[in-house]
């Protein structure tokens, strides 16, 4: 059986899983460890929660950096258009 979804949609689903579901699962696992464990498990659960938050924020930083690259490329293209045509593109 083959998957009939377009490749772009599959990529988007995988990225959503990586960006939001994975960090959420890790954070929930840390909370479960803290809730069900002993006093010493609080530190371990806190570490697991921190790891989940770190996964989320690393993904956010990567997206912020990639967005900056796209904006820079768009501005470079607009400047080239201005150099050729003498006016700023709409």
If you had to describe this structure to a student in words, what would you say it looks like?
This protein has 90 residues and is mostly helical. It has one domain (7-85). Helix content is 83%, strand content 0%. It is built from two helices and no strands. The protein has helices at residues 7-36, 41-85. Helix 1 (7-36) runs antiparallel to helix 2. The longest helix has 45 residues, at 41-85. The protein starts with 6 loop residues before the first helix and ends in a 5-residue tail after the last helix. The model has no long low-confidence stretch (mean pLDDT 88).
The DSSP helix count reads: 2
Low-confidence stretches: none
Span of the ends, CA to CA: 47 Å
Shape: elongated
> Over the alpha carbons, how many angstroms does the gyration radius reach?
22 Å
Number of strands: 0
The assembly state of the depicted protein chains is: single chain
What share of the residues does DSSP label as strand, in percent? under 5%
How many distinct domains?
1
The structure class reads mainly alpha
Q: What is the helix content? A: over 70%
**Mean of all residue-level pLDDT scores:** 88
**Biggest sheet: strands, sense, closure?**
none
Give the H and E element order: HH
């Amino acid at each position: 059986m083959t998957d009939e979804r377009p490749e772009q949609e599959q990529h988007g689903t995988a990225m959503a899983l990586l960006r939001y579901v994975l960090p959420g699962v890790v954070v929930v696992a840390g909370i479960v460890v803290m809730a069900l464990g002993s006093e010493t498990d609080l530190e371990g659960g806190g570490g697991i929660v921190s790891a989940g938050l770190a996964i989320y924020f690393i993904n956010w930083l990567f997206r912020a950096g990639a967005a900056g690259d796209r904006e820079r490329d768009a501005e470079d293209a607009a400047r080239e258009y201005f150099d050729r045509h003498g006016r700023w593109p709409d």
